[in-house]
Amino acid sequence: MKAHCLPFPQIPHTTRLFADFLVYSPQAHAFYPRPPHFAEWVKEEAAKISYDSSRRQRVAEILERQNKRWNVSSRTLANLERLRRGAAVIVTGQQVGLFGGPMFSIYKALTAVKLAEEATAAGVDTVPVFWLATYDHDLAEVNHVSLPGADGIVETLTTSSRGIPEAPVSAVRLGDEILPVLEQASALLGDNDATKLLRETYRPDETFGTAFAGLFARLFADWGVIVLDASDAELHRVAEPIYRAAIERADELAANLVARGQALEAAGYHQQVRVTPSSVLLFALQNGSRMAIHRHGQGAGFAIGSEGATEKVSRADLLSRISSAPEQFSPNVLLRPIVEDYLLPALAYTGGAAETAYFGQAGAVYELLLGRVTPIIPRFSATMVEPKMQRLMERYGITVPDVFAGPEALRQKFAAHSLPQDLRSAFETTKQSLDANLTAIKEKLTRLDRTLVDAAETAVSKMHYQLDRLHTQAARAELQKGELVSRHAETLSQALYPHKGLQERGIGGIYFVARHGRDLLHQLYAAIRSDCLNHQILEL
C-alpha cells in the first residue's frame, strides 16, 4: 500500500471550521480546548479526567455483559478488565448502518485503536470504545448500503425492515426480508470471509444495533475494540443525572448554546445544529416513537412531540418520569457527547468533520454539565485506489483531485486525452505559439505605452478562453463518439467519488474487506498516523 497526502482544503465541501481546526487557527482555538495534535497534550489531559469509581464498575459490568453476548475476543475481554481497573478510553461512534455502514466507520474504529495504543505507550493506560448510536430514530439513514458490482457501478442495497415510525433503530428487528438482501450482497461481494461474517451477524431477529455490534466485534477482534450499545436500559439509568440536568438547566443550556452559535457565526463559521431559546437536549419515547422535547410558554412548562400533536408537561412531572424510567429518554446530538463522557472516562473522542462541528457547539454544554470539555481528534480519512482504477488513471493522465471535480468534468478530461494525437499536438503547438507571440507583443507595448499593457492582458485572456473553449468542444465531440471513454470515466467516478461524495462516505466498508481480506484492516492500521491530519490517497 502506497500513501499520498492530499490536504483537506483540496477536498470538496471541506468547511472553513474544519480546515481552521486542523491548523488550530486563533479563530478555531476559541471553540476547541486542545489542538488536534494528540501527543502534545495526552498526559496533561489524562490528569483532568474525573470518573467515579462506583460508576466505573457499574459501566464495566454492563459492557462486559453486552460484549460477551457478541462472543468477543480474549483481547476485548482483557481491555474490559483494563477499563474496570482504571484505564481511560478513546471514544468513537457511528449510526448502525446496514452491513457495517460506510467505510469511514472502519476508519473510526481503527483510529480509536491507534490513539489508545499511543496513549498507553505514553504512560496513560487507554482502551478503544465504539459507541453504537442505537437510540437514533432516522431509519432511512441506516437501512441501506452501497456496494460496487463487477462492472464498477455502485448499487444501493436496502432492507425493508421497519418498526413503529420514529422508533429508535434498536427497536427495529430484522425479519426474513433481510435474507434476499444478504443474497444481493453475496452476489456483489462473492463467497468469502466477509460475506460469511454478514450471514453470521445479520440474521432474522437481530436488530440493526445487535447485528452491527456482532460484525464489528469480529472485524476488530485482533485489537479488542469494546462495543457499546447505547440503547441499553442500564446505561440510561447510569446517565440519569445528565438527563435530569438537561431539564433542570434547560434555560441556561439553551442560552449558552444560542450564544455559542452566535459566536461561531461571528467568527465566520457555521452552526451544525440550530438552537433556539426553547430547545431542550432530550428526546422522550411516546408509544415507542422518539419525540423531541421543547420548553413551552413561560415558566417551567414543557411540551413533548411534534407540532400539532404535543403533550404539555410540567418540569416536576418530567423530572419524575426521568427518575422512574430514564430508559424512556435519550440525548440529542449536542448532549450525546456529554452522556458518552459521563458514562466513560474519555481521554478524547475521534470523529470526522461533522462531529468536529458538533463539538464546537457542544463545548457550551460540556462547560455547564461536566466542567471539562473532552478534546476531539480528527479520524483517519482516505480514498483507496484499487489496481484497476490505478491503470485507468495512468491511461488517461488523471489524478484523484481530477476525479473530485465531478463526473462531467472527468468525462471531459478523459475525452480531451482521447483526442487524436495530431489534434492534441495542434492545440498544444497553437497554445505555445500564442503565448510566445503575445509575450513579445506585450514587451513592445510596454516600451511604446504602458497603459496598453492592461488591454493586452485582457486580449490574451480572451484568446486563451476561446482556444480552451474550442478544445472543450472538440473533447465533447470525441466523447459523443467514444462510448468506452465515457464508461471508463463513469467507472472511475463511481469508485473514487460515488454520488459526488468521498468514497469513504459512499461505499460500504465491507466491500473492501471482501475484496482484500481482513489483512487490509492491518494495512490501514499501519497507515494511520495521529500526527498526519491530511486526507490520504492509498494505492492498493
Query: Based on DSSP secondary structure assignment, what is the total number of beta strands?
Result: 15
Ends apart, CA distance between termini: 5 Å
β-strand amount: 15-25%
- Percent in helix: 40-55%
**Poorly predicted residue ranges:** none
What is the rounded Rg? 27 Å
Sheet bearing the most strands, described?
5 strands, parallel
3D shape: globular
- How much is the average pLDDT? 91
Q: Tell me the number of structural domains.
A: 2
Strand order of the largest sheet: 6-3-2-12-13
Total helical elements: 24
Structural class: alpha/beta
Domain Bacillithiol biosynthesis BshC N-terminal Rossmann-like: 1-379
Enzyme class: ligase
Pfam families: CC_BshC, Rossmann-like_BshC
Keywords: Ligase
Give keywords.
single chain; 540 residues; alpha/beta; 5-stranded parallel beta sheet; 5-stranded antiparallel beta sheet; 24 helices; 15 strands
Please describe the topology of this protein:
Blueprint: E1 2-6, H1 16-23, H2 26-29, H3 42-46, H4 53-69, H5 74-85, E2 88-94, H6 103-121, E3 126-132, E4 144-148, E5 154-158, H7 178-189, H8 193-201, H9 208-219, E6 226-229, H10 233-238, H11 240-248, H12 250-266, E7 279-286, E8 289-295, E9 301-306, E10 309-314, H13 315-324, E11 329-331, H14 336-343, E12 346-351, H15 353-369, E13 376-378, E14 382-385, H16 387-396, H17 400-404, H18 407-418, H19 421-448, H20 453-481, H21 483-496, H22 503-506, H23 509-516, H24 519-527, E15 535-539
Parallel strand pairs: 2-3, 2-12, 3-6, 12-13, 14-15
Antiparallel strand pairs: 1-15, 4-5, 7-8, 7-11, 8-9, 9-10
Helix pairs in contact: 4-5, 7-8, 8-9, 11-13, 12-15, 18-20, 18-21, 19-20
